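Exercise 7. Given the encoded structure of a 166-residue chain, write a plausible sequence.
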């Protein structure tokens, strides 16, 4: 990972944690929405200065909160911060990822022959990268049971013939 990707990941994670904390704090505030003859008004149930500031900020129609139905609409700044944090995290993860392997066979085979790639890093005798499938190509094939059975039957016949002669 490069320094840029680590920085973006750290910044994105920090922003996402802050957005989650803000959303949690906002949802735990005791605010109710009441509808009167003049329209909807937001009143604070608590007497703390934080609640009165928040209720004053919500009078602009940013959020609709009801404690009875547990329906909470987050303010636009928390939503935008969350989306921005996710975007920064995505960019940081993409920048920190390894280079993609080629998908086309001819491109991959060319890289293997030039010594820049290969599956498992199969090395030839000269130190360069050889055929990555060499281990599969030189191994014995599957066991042929019928051929082994014939060989065993011939061996038993030979043993019986040797035993009868002695």
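Solution.
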């Amino acid at each position: 990972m490069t320094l840029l990707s680590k920085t973006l990941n750290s910044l994105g994670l920090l922003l996402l944690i802050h957005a989650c904390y803000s959303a949690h704090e906002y949802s735990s505030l005791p605010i109710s929405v009441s509808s009167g003859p003049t329209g909807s008004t937001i009143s604070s149930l608590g007497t703390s200065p934080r609640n009165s500031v928040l209720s004053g900020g919500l009078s602009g129609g940013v959020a609709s909160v009801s404690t009875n139905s547990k329906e909470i609409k987050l303010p636009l700044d928390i939503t935008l911060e969350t989306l921005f944090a996710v975007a920064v995290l995505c960019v940081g993860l993409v920048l920190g990822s390894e280079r993609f392997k080629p998908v086309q066979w001819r491109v991959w085979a060319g890289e293997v022959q030039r010594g820049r790639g290969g599956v498992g890093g199969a090395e030839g005798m000269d130190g360069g990268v050889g055929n990555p499938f060499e281990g599969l190509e030189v191994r014995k094939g599957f066991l042929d049971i019928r051929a082994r059975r014939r060989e065993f039957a011939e061996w038993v016949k030979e043993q019986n013939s040797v035993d009868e002669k002695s």
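Remark. The CA atoms of residues 30 and 134 lie 70 Å apart. Students should compare their own answers with the one above.
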